[in-house]
Request: fold
Amino acid sequence: MTSGRTAEQEQVRAYLLAQTQDASWLELWPRVLQTRLELIDALRGVSNEQARFRPAVEEWSILEVASHLLEYSSSARD
Reply:
């Protein structure tokens, strides 16, 4: 794979691209916003210690995953 993505990442990317074939960006954007709000709501009960915990050295913490998702979702329209 020359893209640097894993097979799993390619599978997820292909799935997401297929989902956009039937809907315009204007139709998808409200779903992106709703999912973003649901993520924020789900994280309300997570403590700082839990958010920073990494299950393994090479794995991301809840904080890292959430930050990545929220940052990407806010700039996805660019």
User: Anything to note?
Assistant: The first helix runs from residue 7 to 20. Residues 37 and 70 are 10 Å apart (CA to CA).
